[in-house]
Amino acid sequence: MWADVRRPLEEAGVAVSAPDLPGPEAEGSLASWAEHVLHAVAGPMVPVGASMGGYLVFELLRRAPDRIAGIGLVGTRAGAETQESRTGRDETIELLRDDGAQALWETLGPRLFAPGADPEVVARAREIALEQGPLRLVAALEAIRDRDDSTSLLSEVRVPAVVVVGEDDQVIPPAEGAAIARALPRARLVRVPGAGHLVALEHPERVAQAVLDLLEAVAT
């Protein structure tokens, strides 16, 4: 998903790591993902996460705040699941186990993109999703379902931050990203018109520029 964001960052001389999560064992917890990242990347880092990747950014902040030099949050939220949404996750997990990844895509896929999204981008997202397989997707849903509430953490984050929202996001309303940006002491909000939930796929150039701007803020 990050390939078209990664390329301009590396061309600008940025060292980029994109860990494969939920990992070979398909562990269903943000804690295990965070430990994997902390062991895979040496020294200070600037984690950038989209949707559930944003939840992982918060977990990294909890576990190793001294190693976090800046953060990027794309189409994510700070709150935990409600009881209703937890029930919805459980139902989706059952759907995956019973009917496979294609059934999940048919349910969720249409909501991921802005109206009139490039069909090639939609096809690419579908391919990425189906490649994961039910086991990895279930692990991801379990991690999302069981995450901690990070709302109170926001005011404690003293490093530079960028919050990117797609103005047509149907999964996580852009107002939630705007609220995160207001709560973070050193955040900049970037709104991307014509983008849905998967901003990094629909408009990778905007996300790459937002990250480059964040890194400049980290360096100053």
Mind explaining what this structure looks like?
The structure is a single chain. With 220 residues, the protein is of the alpha/beta class. It is 52% helix and 9% strand. The chain has 9 helices and 4 strands. The longest helix is centred in the middle third of the chain and has 27 residues, at 119-145. It is globular and about 50 Å long. The model has no long low-confidence stretch (mean pLDDT 95).
Write the layout of secondary structure elements.
Elements: H1 3-11, H2 30-40, E1 48-50, H3 52-63, E2 71-74, H4 83-99, H5 101-108, H6 119-145, E3 161-166, H7 174-183, E4 187-192, H8 199-202, H9 204-219
Parallel strand pairs: 1-2, 2-3, 3-4
Helix pairs in contact: 1-9, 2-3, 4-5, 4-6
Q: Helix share of residues?
A: 40-55%
Name of the level-1 CATH class of the largest domain: Alpha Beta
The number of distinct structural domains comes to: 2
The DSSP helix count reads 9
CATH architecture of the largest domain: 3-Layer(aba) Sandwich
Total strands: 4
Q: What is the structural class?
A: alpha/beta
